[in-house]
Amino acid sequence: MLLRYAILGLLDGQELHGYRIKTAFEEQVGPSWSLNYGQIYQTLKDLRRGGLVEGRFDRGTGHVGRWMYTTTAKGRRALDTWLSRSPRRPQSARDEILIRLLVLDRKEIETRLAQIASQEQVYNDYVGQLTAARKLHDAEVREGGSLRMLAGDAAIFQAEAHLRWLAHCAKLLKRKPGAHALPTKAAANGRNGGGECVVDSPKMKAAR
After folding, report:
1. Which residue among 34, 63, 84 closes a domain?
2. CA distance between the termini of the chain
3. C-alpha torsion angle, residues 47, 52, 56, 57 (rounded to 10)
């Protein structure tokens, strides 16, 4: 859903072909949010079918002909309507590690801790990659920042928050080795404000 508005915004007031839409998006938002051509062309097809963008075939010179797209008046109205709405609330914290811990709920604590450690390694590597990419744009930071810088920071902060949650879950599991621990990233969707790893809540006990 968000991609359609990103494309409408990029095409507002200018003509772009599919390849340029991809590069323009990634140049501005950065490596933390990459697109594939299948997503772009399917979204363009849907937008064109809905009358939100229009396309023309440019035979050009010195290159193979290609389709150029731009936002229509209807598309600009749709974009303005979306911008006038309040941002959507955070999505529910649906994370693969939760399902892994569910599957391993009755296994030894070491098995569950190993899953958490594996997830921590993945996120530590990811933070390292994002930080390295971020350093390439220090000049932009000194000049007041950019959308690409802000997107990179968002990805880093989110990954670091996830690492803190994983550390909290590991600590809780070690503290209560006899409990069946099913952590929940409550902080990610605004419930249970402290981001606690909930273990055997009354509802969970009643369901067993």
Report:
1. 84
2. 38
3. -10
- Domain CATH number, residue 46: 1.10.10.10
CA-nearest of 168, 165, 159 to 187 is 165
Q: CA–CA separation, 69 vs 104, rounded Å?
A: 50
Beta-carbon contacts of 103 under 8 Å, excluding residues fewer than 6 positions away, are: none
Task: Let me know how many helices (H) and strands (E) the chain has, helices first.
Answer: 9, 2
3-state secondary structure of 193: coil
Going from the C-alpha of 191 to that of each of 1, 23, 26, 55, 182, the distances in angstroms are 25, 38, 33, 45, 16
Q: In this predicted structure, what is the pLDDT of residue 145?
A: 55
The tally of domains found in the chain comes to 2
- Amino acid at the residue 30: G
**Percent of the chain having pLDDT more than 90?**
43
- Residue bearing the bigger pLDDT, 141 or 109: 109
CB atoms within 10 A of CB 112: 23
Coil/strand/helix, residue 199: coil
- Say how far residue 48 (Cα) sits from the centre of its chain: 26
Residue 97: closest CA among 105, 88, 85, 89: 105
pLDDT of residue 28: 82
Residue 141 token pair: 């930071």
pLDDT, tens digit, for every residue of 43-89?
999 999 999 999 999 887 666 789 999 999 999 999 999 999 888 77
Q: Is residue 91 part of a domain?
A: no
